[in-house]
Amino acid sequence: LIPIPVIDVSLLSSEAELENLRSALSSAGCFQAIGHGMSSSYLEKIREVAKQFFALPEEEKQKYGRAVNESEGYGNDRVVSDKQVLDWSYRLSLRVFPQKVRRLSLWPKNPTDFSEKLEEFSTKVKSMMDYLLRCMARSLNLPEGSFLDQFGEESMMLARFNFYPRCSRPDLVLGVKPHTDRSGITVLLQDKEVEGLQVLIDDNWVSVPTMPDAFVVNLGDQMQIMSNGIFKSIMHRVVTNTEKMRMSLAIFNEPDPGNEIGPAEGLIDESRPRLYRSVKDYGHINYKCYQEGKIPLETLKIADS
Ligand code: AKG
Predict the structure, then answer these.
(1) Is ligand 1 within 6 A of the CB of residue 167?
(2) Does ligand 1 have an atom closer than 6 angstroms to the CB of 158?
(3) Could you tell me whether strands 197-201 and 204-207 are parallel, antiparallel, or unpaired per DSSP bridges?
(4) What is the pLDDT of residues 214-268, one digit of tens each?
(5) Tell me, what's the pLDDT at 1?
């Protein structure tokens, strides 16, 4: 059994926990974060507003329905081809940062405290992510801001509420197909009780156990680029379940698409040549590559490296 690393965020001022962080991200590319300062009763409130929203009648939820070719709003898997097996899920995706890009008309009015709770939660998650990005740089002996500065003041954060209904044929359909995140870093609040998330470690799909008060932190493609391939962007998927429905909330954080990002200078030397070229708006490249059936990170690799 391959265990998923657990990192205590409150201990990251110690060299020993920093080393655990470096090791988790360079081997697994993910970890469960505890000691982050958000209480179980607080996390319960976030889960509660999500649950209340998904429990609304379909026509009420459709008021926030996603338009064709848009990424924000409520709906199912986006259709990109007639051969596609659709993911077995309902999603509500909302951009939360920078504040000016919020489309508040898509933020549910019901439950009435939805917006307030999302605003508060995403602000807390943002400050935890900023801290983790500083720790990640320190764990590689880089200046603290090496990654955070590349994200910039206007880093883009998207919240995605996922609802996976029961499914009679888990052998035929997934909740989310295998993918790596295009983000730099993703923080996921899993369902309290129902497992479903699996990560690919050493060619094995490993179930991420539920830990009610922990966040799953996944590294995305853009941190693999910035760390010059030292940190891994984790491949993951969600399986379906005949017995129980499942919910999760993912917060994706990616660098300001106007910023050029690339491997941190301190991570390039003769023994470790530069693996990736610098890039702007990786999200766009990522989307195009998926449509064309290419692996996005491969297209940015420098030849002979
Ligand atoms: C996604 O929203 O991209 C996920 O991977 C969701 C993971 C989960 O539901 O645990």
Answers:
(1) no
(2) no
(3) antiparallel
(4) 999 999 999 999 999 999 999 999 999 999 999 999 999 999 999 999 999 999 9
(5) 59
Q: Which atom in ligand 1 lies closest to the alpha carbon of residue 197?
A: 10
Mutate to test the pocket of ligand 1, among 157, 162, 216 (most ligand atoms within 8 A of CB): 162
Judge if the beta carbon of residue 176 lies within 6 A of ligand 1: yes
Ligand 1 near 160 CB (within 6 A): yes
Say how many C-beta atoms besides its own lie within 10 A of residue 204's C-beta: 10
Cβ-contact 246, 192 below 8 angstroms: no
Contact 245, 194 (CB under 8 A): yes
Q: Is the CB of 92 under 6 A from ligand 1?
A: no
- Classified as helix, coil or strand, 124 is helix
Contact call for residues 192 and 180 (beta carbons, < 8 A): no
Q: What is the mean pLDDT, run by run of 10 residues, along the chain of 305 residues?
A: 90 98 96 98 98 98 93 90 87 98 97 98 98 98 98 97 96 94 97 97 95 97 98 97 97 97 97 96 90 88 77
Strand 204-207 vs strand 174-179: parallel, antiparallel, or unpaired? unpaired
How far is 119 from 136, CA to CA, in rounded Å? 25
* Cβ 186 under 6 angstroms from ligand 1: no
* pTM flag (> 0.90): yes
Mutational pocket test of ligand 1: of 176, 240, 253, the residue with most ligand atoms within 8 Å of the beta carbon: 176
Using CA atoms of 125, 131, 133, 135 in order, give the dihedral in degrees to the nearest 10.
-140
* Pure H helices in the chain: 15-27, 40-54, 58-61, 114-139, 145-151, 221-226, 282-292, 296-299
Q: Which two tokens stand for residue 254?
A: 């990616």
Long-range CB contacts for residues 14-22, cutoff 8 Å, separation at least 24: 18/135, 18/138, 18/139, 19/139, 21/135, 21/136, 21/139, 22/136, 22/139, 22/140
How far apart, in whole angstroms, are the C-alpha atoms of residue 131 and residue 7?
13
